[in-house]
Amino acid sequence: VQKSASFAPPIPLDEVKAIGRASATTVNDVLMATVSGALTRYLRDHGDPDVDEVMWMVPVSVKPLEVQPSPELGNHFAIVALRMPLGVDDVRDRLVAVHRAMERIKQSDEALLTYTIQRAISKAPTPAATGLTNFFANKAVGVLTNVPGPRQPMTLAGTEVTGVLGWAPCSGDQPMTICMFSYNGSVYVGFGADVELVPDGDRLGELFAQEFEEIRDAVLGRVP
Would you say 59 and 82 are in contact if contact means Cβ atoms under 8 Å apart? Predict the structure, then answer.
């Protein structure tokens, strides 16, 4: 199936943190609330004003973040279901709603349970593993991930890396993925979408930027 790849203008991580402090939420909550607002705007623009939530598959680490990488490397994460509220126009109410949804996940055993299930599926014969993976994947619109990257500028072959973009993978019939990646003081957001279902994927990045400005102005005060 043909996919599109687009991205939003980078946003300052310091502003995201400031919004989180002012609203008693986290950086992740602020970014998730921005996604919620952007998707609400997109759906309304396309004649779907009544959608009140969307299901995402969100990777959650089951291993503490280490200062130094493990010699073995590798990922230790589980995929959990996030019911993202949509249609919440009041910025502070939306931040609270997203915060509650994320706290429910953090305080539950869902991550460890799904991690165990993922390991079991990975050891199954390929046809069974593929079928089970698609079965669970098709319960969500796609994968939504927020990855903390290097806090200092990196270089590649002696040239400074000015930005990093990522696109989350998708399985089954998922029509959309979103990857938020922080690097050197900025947050970069990449959108992947099914061209037939989301024909104007570039619009997602524009709406994300507009929604972040609205959240920033509502919580921190309008920037002159």
Answer: no
Confidence of residue 68 (pLDDT cuts 50, 70, 90): low
**Concatenated DSSP letters for the chain?**
--EEEEEPPPEEHHHHHHHHHHHT--HHHHHHHHHHHHHHHHHHHTT-TT--EEEEEEEEESSPPPSS--TT----EEEEEEEEE----SHHHHHHHHHHHHHHHHTSSHHHHHHHHHHHHHTS-HHHHHHHHHHHHTTSSEEEEEEE--SS--EETTEE-----------TT--EEEEEEEETTEEEEEEEEETTTSTTTHHHHHHHHHHHHHHHHHHH----
Among 57-61, 118-122, 161-165, 191-195, the minimum mean pLDDT is found in 118-122
pLDDT in tens, 150-183: 999 999 999 999 999 888 888 878 889 999 999 9
Q: What is the pLDDT of residue 163?
A: 92
Burial (0-12, 13-18, 19+ Cβ within 10 Å), 79: buried
* pTM to 2 decimal places: 0.86
In the chain, the amino acid numbered 52 is: D
